[in-house]
Amino acid sequence: MMKRLKPLNGCLLHLMGKRPKTILTDQDQAMSAALASKWPSTYHRLCVWHIFQNAATHLSSVFSSFKHTLAADFSRCIYDYEEESEFLDAWNKMIEKYDLKDNQWLARMFSLREKWALVYGRNTFCADIITTQRSECMNAIVKHYISYKNNIVEVFHHFQRLIDDRREKESTEDLKNAQSYPAMTFLLEILKHAAAVYTHRMFALFNEELRKAFESKIESEDEFGSSRIYKVRPFHRTKEHVVTYDSIGGKANNVTVEANTVGDVATIATDGDANESQIRGLKPKRRVTYQ
User: Fold this and answer.
1) Where's the MULE transposase domain (predicted)?
2) Pair 281, 127: CB distance under 8 Å
3) For tag attachment on the chain, is the N or C end more exposed, with fewer CB atoms within 10 Å?
4) Nearest-CA neighbor of 270 among 238, 227, 207?
Protein backbone atom coordinates (compact mmCIF):
# COMPACT_ATOMS: atom_id res chain seq x y z
CA MET A 1 0.00 0.00 0.00
CA MET A 2 2.95 2.35 0.64
CA LYS A 3 3.67 2.40 -3.10
CA ARG A 4 0.15 3.74 -3.65
CA LEU A 5 0.53 6.46 -1.00
CA LYS A 6 3.45 8.20 -2.73
CA PRO A 7 1.48 9.14 -5.88
CA LEU A 8 -1.33 10.44 -3.65
CA ASN A 9 1.12 12.67 -1.79
CA GLY A 10 2.43 14.03 -5.08
CA CYS A 11 -1.10 14.58 -6.35
CA LEU A 12 -1.94 16.51 -3.18
CA LEU A 13 0.97 18.87 -3.82
CA HIS A 14 -0.36 19.62 -7.32
CA LEU A 15 -3.80 20.28 -5.83
CA MET A 16 -2.23 22.81 -3.41
CA GLY A 17 -3.23 20.74 -0.40
CA LYS A 18 -6.91 20.55 -1.34
CA ARG A 19 -8.27 17.03 -1.38
CA PRO A 20 -10.63 16.02 -4.20
CA LYS A 21 -14.33 15.71 -3.42
CA THR A 22 -14.71 12.50 -5.43
CA ILE A 23 -12.27 10.10 -7.04
CA LEU A 24 -12.95 7.24 -9.44
CA THR A 25 -10.80 4.14 -9.77
CA ASP A 26 -11.04 0.61 -11.03
CA GLN A 27 -11.37 -2.11 -8.38
CA ASP A 28 -7.72 -2.02 -7.35
CA GLN A 29 -7.77 -3.08 -3.69
CA ALA A 30 -4.42 -1.48 -2.84
CA MET A 31 -5.60 1.85 -4.26
CA SER A 32 -8.84 1.58 -2.31
CA ALA A 33 -6.94 0.97 0.94
CA ALA A 34 -4.56 3.85 0.21
CA LEU A 35 -7.44 6.25 -0.46
CA ALA A 36 -9.21 5.24 2.73
CA SER A 37 -5.99 5.82 4.68
CA LYS A 38 -4.78 9.04 3.05
CA TRP A 39 -8.00 10.74 1.90
CA PRO A 40 -10.73 9.43 4.22
CA SER A 41 -13.03 12.39 3.47
CA THR A 42 -12.85 11.86 -0.31
CA TYR A 43 -15.79 9.95 -1.77
CA HIS A 44 -14.41 6.90 -3.57
CA ARG A 45 -16.47 5.56 -6.46
CA LEU A 46 -15.80 2.72 -8.87
CA CYS A 47 -15.55 3.19 -12.62
CA VAL A 48 -18.76 1.95 -14.25
CA TRP A 49 -16.95 1.07 -17.48
CA HIS A 50 -14.61 -1.30 -15.64
CA ILE A 51 -17.58 -2.85 -13.84
CA PHE A 52 -19.22 -3.69 -17.17
CA GLN A 53 -15.92 -5.12 -18.45
CA ASN A 54 -15.61 -7.31 -15.37
CA ALA A 55 -19.25 -8.35 -15.65
CA ALA A 56 -18.61 -9.63 -19.16
CA THR A 57 -15.83 -11.81 -17.74
CA HIS A 58 -17.44 -13.05 -14.52
CA LEU A 59 -20.90 -13.54 -16.04
CA SER A 60 -19.80 -14.80 -19.45
CA SER A 61 -21.86 -18.00 -19.30
CA VAL A 62 -25.01 -16.08 -18.36
CA PHE A 63 -24.39 -13.39 -20.96
CA SER A 64 -24.15 -16.05 -23.66
CA SER A 65 -27.70 -17.17 -22.84
CA PHE A 66 -29.28 -13.83 -21.85
CA LYS A 67 -26.97 -11.31 -23.48
CA HIS A 68 -29.39 -8.45 -24.10
CA THR A 69 -31.79 -8.85 -21.18
CA LEU A 70 -29.09 -9.31 -18.52
CA ALA A 71 -27.12 -6.32 -19.78
CA ALA A 72 -30.27 -4.18 -19.69
CA ASP A 73 -31.25 -5.31 -16.18
CA PHE A 74 -27.73 -4.80 -14.85
CA SER A 75 -27.54 -1.37 -16.48
CA ARG A 76 -30.82 -0.32 -14.87
CA CYS A 77 -29.47 -1.30 -11.46
CA ILE A 78 -26.54 1.05 -12.03
CA TYR A 79 -28.28 4.05 -13.57
CA ASP A 80 -32.05 4.13 -13.27
CA TYR A 81 -33.25 3.91 -9.70
CA GLU A 82 -33.70 6.95 -7.49
CA GLU A 83 -34.69 5.18 -4.27
CA GLU A 84 -32.68 2.54 -2.43
CA SER A 85 -35.73 0.31 -2.02
CA GLU A 86 -36.26 0.30 -5.81
CA PHE A 87 -32.63 -0.59 -6.41
CA LEU A 88 -32.66 -3.44 -3.87
CA ASP A 89 -35.89 -4.82 -5.29
CA ALA A 90 -34.54 -4.72 -8.86
CA TRP A 91 -31.23 -6.30 -7.80
CA ASN A 92 -32.95 -9.18 -6.01
CA LYS A 93 -35.25 -9.78 -8.98
CA MET A 94 -32.23 -9.86 -11.31
CA ILE A 95 -30.42 -12.36 -9.07
CA GLU A 96 -33.49 -14.59 -8.96
CA LYS A 97 -34.35 -14.22 -12.66
CA TYR A 98 -30.92 -15.42 -13.82
CA ASP A 99 -30.25 -17.78 -10.89
CA LEU A 100 -27.14 -15.90 -9.73
CA LYS A 101 -27.46 -16.43 -5.99
CA ASP A 102 -24.14 -18.30 -5.82
CA ASN A 103 -22.15 -15.93 -8.02
CA GLN A 104 -19.31 -14.66 -5.82
CA TRP A 105 -18.43 -11.71 -8.04
CA LEU A 106 -21.98 -10.34 -7.90
CA ALA A 107 -22.05 -10.88 -4.14
CA ARG A 108 -18.87 -8.82 -3.81
CA MET A 109 -20.23 -6.12 -6.11
CA PHE A 110 -23.36 -5.92 -4.00
CA SER A 111 -21.24 -5.39 -0.89
CA LEU A 112 -19.60 -2.45 -2.73
CA ARG A 113 -22.88 -1.09 -4.12
CA GLU A 114 -22.50 2.31 -2.45
CA LYS A 115 -19.42 2.90 -4.61
CA TRP A 116 -21.04 2.30 -8.00
CA ALA A 117 -24.86 2.36 -7.95
CA LEU A 118 -25.93 5.92 -8.72
CA VAL A 119 -28.79 5.72 -6.24
CA TYR A 120 -26.14 6.00 -3.51
CA GLY A 121 -24.16 8.77 -5.18
CA ARG A 122 -26.77 11.36 -6.13
CA ASN A 123 -25.92 13.65 -3.24
CA THR A 124 -22.18 13.63 -3.93
CA PHE A 125 -20.65 15.98 -6.49
CA CYS A 126 -18.89 14.16 -9.31
CA ALA A 127 -19.54 16.49 -12.30
CA ASP A 128 -21.42 13.66 -14.06
CA ILE A 129 -18.18 11.68 -14.30
CA ILE A 130 -18.84 7.99 -13.66
CA THR A 131 -15.94 6.36 -15.52
CA THR A 132 -12.18 6.73 -15.84
CA GLN A 133 -12.55 6.68 -19.61
CA ARG A 134 -10.92 10.08 -20.06
CA SER A 135 -7.60 8.63 -18.95
CA GLU A 136 -8.32 5.42 -20.86
CA CYS A 137 -9.07 7.53 -23.94
CA MET A 138 -5.75 9.35 -23.63
CA ASN A 139 -3.96 6.02 -23.33
CA ALA A 140 -5.60 4.88 -26.56
CA ILE A 141 -4.62 8.12 -28.32
CA VAL A 142 -0.99 7.78 -27.25
CA LYS A 143 -0.93 4.16 -28.44
CA HIS A 144 -2.12 5.36 -31.84
CA TYR A 145 1.08 7.40 -32.20
CA ILE A 146 3.64 5.42 -30.21
CA SER A 147 4.61 1.77 -30.43
CA TYR A 148 6.59 -0.38 -28.04
CA LYS A 149 8.99 -0.89 -30.95
CA ASN A 150 10.00 2.80 -30.96
CA ASN A 151 13.31 3.86 -29.48
CA ILE A 152 13.49 6.86 -27.15
CA VAL A 153 14.15 9.37 -29.95
CA GLU A 154 11.18 8.08 -31.95
CA VAL A 155 8.97 8.21 -28.86
CA PHE A 156 9.65 11.93 -28.39
CA HIS A 157 9.21 12.58 -32.10
CA HIS A 158 5.83 10.85 -32.27
CA PHE A 159 4.68 12.41 -29.01
CA GLN A 160 5.38 15.83 -30.49
CA ARG A 161 3.25 14.86 -33.50
CA LEU A 162 0.43 14.00 -31.11
CA ILE A 163 0.70 17.39 -29.38
CA ASP A 164 0.78 19.25 -32.70
CA ASP A 165 -2.31 17.42 -33.95
CA ARG A 166 -4.23 18.14 -30.75
CA ARG A 167 -3.30 21.81 -30.85
CA GLU A 168 -4.41 22.06 -34.46
CA LYS A 169 -7.79 20.57 -33.58
CA GLU A 170 -8.14 22.96 -30.67
CA SER A 171 -7.26 25.95 -32.87
CA THR A 172 -9.87 24.85 -35.41
CA GLU A 173 -12.48 24.61 -32.66
CA ASP A 174 -11.45 28.00 -31.28
CA LEU A 175 -11.89 29.57 -34.71
CA LYS A 176 -15.33 28.03 -35.09
CA ASN A 177 -16.41 29.30 -31.68
CA ALA A 178 -14.99 32.77 -32.27
CA GLN A 179 -16.64 33.29 -35.66
CA SER A 180 -20.10 31.86 -35.08
CA TYR A 181 -22.84 31.62 -32.47
CA PRO A 182 -24.70 28.44 -31.64
CA ALA A 183 -28.32 28.30 -32.76
CA MET A 184 -30.79 29.25 -30.02
CA THR A 185 -34.29 27.81 -29.94
CA PHE A 186 -35.50 30.56 -27.61
CA LEU A 187 -34.04 34.04 -27.23
CA LEU A 188 -33.70 33.94 -23.46
CA GLU A 189 -31.20 36.25 -21.80
CA ILE A 190 -29.53 33.38 -19.99
CA LEU A 191 -29.06 31.55 -23.30
CA LYS A 192 -27.72 34.68 -24.99
CA HIS A 193 -25.10 34.99 -22.30
CA ALA A 194 -24.23 31.28 -22.48
CA ALA A 195 -23.88 31.51 -26.26
CA ALA A 196 -21.47 34.43 -25.86
CA VAL A 197 -19.10 32.84 -23.36
CA TYR A 198 -19.24 29.07 -23.87
CA THR A 199 -18.20 26.74 -26.64
CA HIS A 200 -20.78 25.32 -29.02
CA ARG A 201 -20.48 21.90 -27.43
CA MET A 202 -20.93 23.13 -23.87
CA PHE A 203 -23.73 25.46 -24.92
CA ALA A 204 -25.60 22.48 -26.37
CA LEU A 205 -25.26 20.63 -23.05
CA PHE A 206 -26.45 23.64 -21.07
CA ASN A 207 -29.33 24.26 -23.48
CA GLU A 208 -30.51 20.67 -23.06
CA GLU A 209 -30.44 20.91 -19.26
CA LEU A 210 -32.34 24.19 -19.37
CA ARG A 211 -34.93 22.63 -21.69
CA LYS A 212 -35.47 19.79 -19.23
CA ALA A 213 -35.89 22.30 -16.42
CA PHE A 214 -38.54 24.27 -18.29
CA GLU A 215 -40.39 21.09 -19.20
CA SER A 216 -40.53 20.03 -15.57
CA LYS A 217 -43.72 20.51 -13.62
CA ILE A 218 -43.03 22.91 -10.74
CA GLU A 219 -45.48 23.59 -7.93
CA SER A 220 -44.93 25.96 -5.01
CA GLU A 221 -45.56 24.17 -1.72
CA ASP A 222 -44.57 26.45 1.15
CA GLU A 223 -42.53 29.51 2.13
CA PHE A 224 -40.37 30.21 5.19
CA GLY A 225 -38.85 33.68 5.21
CA SER A 226 -36.63 33.89 2.15
CA SER A 227 -36.85 30.15 1.48
CA ARG A 228 -39.41 28.62 -0.82
CA ILE A 229 -40.20 24.94 -1.17
CA TYR A 230 -41.22 23.48 -4.51
CA LYS A 231 -42.30 20.13 -5.81
CA VAL A 232 -40.56 19.37 -9.09
CA ARG A 233 -41.49 16.54 -11.43
CA PRO A 234 -39.28 16.16 -14.51
CA PHE A 235 -41.01 15.59 -17.84
CA HIS A 236 -41.97 11.94 -18.47
CA ARG A 237 -41.18 11.06 -14.85
CA THR A 238 -43.61 9.97 -12.16
CA LYS A 239 -41.52 10.82 -9.11
CA GLU A 240 -41.52 14.26 -7.57
CA HIS A 241 -38.51 15.96 -5.97
CA VAL A 242 -38.55 18.50 -3.17
CA VAL A 243 -36.45 21.59 -3.93
CA THR A 244 -35.69 24.29 -1.35
CA TYR A 245 -34.79 27.66 -2.89
CA ASP A 246 -33.36 30.63 -0.98
CA SER A 247 -34.26 33.85 -2.79
CA ILE A 248 -32.03 36.27 -0.84
CA GLY A 249 -30.34 38.50 -3.39
CA GLY A 250 -32.16 36.74 -6.21
CA LYS A 251 -29.66 33.88 -6.14
CA ALA A 252 -29.75 30.21 -5.29
CA ASN A 253 -27.86 30.08 -2.03
CA ASN A 254 -29.07 26.70 -0.92
CA VAL A 255 -30.62 23.97 -3.03
CA THR A 256 -31.68 20.61 -1.64
CA VAL A 257 -33.02 17.92 -3.94
CA GLU A 258 -34.31 14.65 -2.49
CA ALA A 259 -33.14 12.61 -5.46
CA ASN A 260 -30.47 14.74 -7.07
CA THR A 261 -31.61 14.75 -10.69
CA VAL A 262 -32.69 18.35 -11.14
CA GLY A 263 -29.90 20.39 -9.58
CA ASP A 264 -29.15 24.06 -10.04
CA VAL A 265 -30.90 24.30 -13.40
CA ALA A 266 -34.19 23.66 -11.58
CA THR A 267 -33.57 26.74 -9.46
CA ILE A 268 -33.08 28.79 -12.61
CA ALA A 269 -36.44 27.59 -13.88
CA THR A 270 -38.17 28.65 -10.65
CA ASP A 271 -36.62 32.10 -10.55
CA GLY A 272 -37.87 34.74 -12.96
CA ASP A 273 -34.84 36.94 -12.25
CA ALA A 274 -32.17 34.43 -13.18
CA ASN A 275 -28.84 36.15 -13.78
CA GLU A 276 -25.44 35.40 -15.27
CA SER A 277 -24.00 34.15 -12.00
CA GLN A 278 -26.38 31.20 -12.15
CA ILE A 279 -24.65 29.68 -15.16
CA ARG A 280 -22.29 27.24 -13.49
CA GLY A 281 -19.98 24.42 -14.26
CA LEU A 282 -19.43 25.13 -17.96
CA LYS A 283 -16.16 25.77 -19.73
CA PRO A 284 -15.45 29.19 -21.21
CA LYS A 285 -14.66 29.62 -24.87
CA ARG A 286 -11.14 28.87 -26.05
CA ARG A 287 -10.81 26.07 -23.52
CA VAL A 288 -11.79 22.95 -25.45
CA THR A 289 -11.40 19.38 -24.25
CA TYR A 290 -11.50 16.64 -26.83
CA GLN A 291 -12.59 13.10 -26.17
Assistant:
1) 11-54
2) yes
3) C
4) 227
